Amino acid sequence: LREADTHYRRALDLARGAGLELRRAEVECNLGELLAAEGRYDQALALLDGARRRYHALGLRHEAAYAEQTL
User: Fold this and answer.
1) Are the beta carbons of 51 and 32 closer than 8 angstroms?
2) What is the pLDDT of residue 21?
3) pTM score, two decimals?
């Protein structure tokens, strides 16, 4: 799981730097799920809430609902 965490964080940095909001939301959601599985709930909640807000801003209701359900 440590390797997945590293790759997700790198992908998140790249998405932020490139201004790719959809990709950023996807990575935040995936990383949030990983962190929750590891018991790192505070970090997971922050990422999942960010993904939910980003999906909502992009008009992606299904994805926003998924992120919210995962919260």
Assistant:
1) yes
2) 98
3) 0.92
